[in-house]
Amino acid sequence: MESSSTKSHAIAAVAVLLGLLCLTVVGCGSGHQLQGALDFPALNCRKHSAVLTDFGGVGDGKTSNTKAFNNAIAKLSEKATDGGAQLIVPPGKWLTGSFNLTSHFTLFIHKDAVILASQDESEWPVFPPLPSYGKGRDAGAGRYSSLIFGTNLTDVVITGNNGTLDGQGESWWKKFKAGELQYTRPYLIELMYSNYIQISNLTLLNSPSWNVHPTYSSNIVIQDLTILAPVDSPNTDGINPDSCSNILIQDSFVVSGDDCIAVKSGWDQYGIEFNMPTEQLVIRRFTCISPDSAGIAFGSEMSGGIKNVRAEDINLINTQSAVRIKTGIGRGAYVKDIFVRRITMKTMKYVFWMTGDYGQHPDPGWDPKALPEITRINYRDMVAENVTYSARLDGIENDPFTGICISNVTISLTEKPKELQWNCTNVAGVTSRVTPPACSALPESKTEIDCPFPEDKLPIEEVQLKACSLNGRGLE
Q1: How far is Cα 302 from Cα 333, in angstroms, rounded to an integer?
Q2: Which of 138, 251, 258, 259 is flagged as catalytic?
Q3: Is 258 noted as a catalytic residue in this protein?
């Protein structure tokens, strides 16, 4: 449990940062009425448009709209080959269970609209576990469908002018903590086996578990999100790309009870067999508050591999650790070619944290000979204030984490820091201009160096969003 002082600092930080976000997030403060023209950026614009109320939607916060969403999307799917379609969620409170999206489709959530997740479990279909996991992460052999779900889709946009998804997660958190769940909790947004995805300009509140979970997908733009959950809520990760490629996460703000971003790729023998890495990931201009977890985590489910990740211009406030690598015996695969620069941190337990003894396994079938490769991990140009512990770096015996490079890092300590600032076992690398000085396993370079950060652009950074408009109502 966090102290009241820690929680009050977090609340104050949220208030300040939300004010700053209103300067940049579309629709903050004032916005356009549904009846007028409204411009927004999207991967593609749509020829056809409808409003949820055209399909019997009732925005009173009490009436279930699951049928209205499903009927609307089924009808609009007929327009996929004729310029695509968009569904507008107008002002109101729209209670719904899980619903599925379609291809060449935009879901636009008005700034005065709130999609409320139903607390009736009968409105949440149950699916088998993900094939790269083999088991639900919470309990049992299955998992509830996500609030907004889709599979095998192309060209999907979930956006708004700062409309809201409220997962109403408290009842789910209580059941999880009490061990009363039969299946894994739902996420707010999950798209699987899909290509060309945009999730942007939304506020996500109180997810039952993870918030945004693209899985087995590629060419993904996630930007201008505000994600908020109580800092003691279980597993409310912000954004979790999982066995995905070519991903851009930018200009977003997360307050979470777990990792703000968790990069994943499957769990033990199931992830090894599925063999789909997360790669070509860009994270930039991102702010996180998470007193019990990481700003960016790699793993612990990383058994398909994670490589070529670039993170820069990150702000972390009252967060347990900056970038954390979580793995263990049985995970196999790799985390490699990680490049991080320009992180600013205030009030941290750790700056650098690597864990090689993560022991959670899906079942007894995991392979104790499956050792992960952790190498070419690069950190540079960081400033941290009020830090308890500079680094805890724990590799694996006979499987050390290698190629660690840390340069130009200044860490200012709290009034009561740990006496041993750098605790390193089974790691190897080099440092340059790091204060306090690192452990002997990461010696100071004899010549001044800057750890590498690629200057070329990944393909997802070249994607240009189009200027789209909402004008009028109904199908055309």
Answers
A1: 7
A2: 258
A3: yes
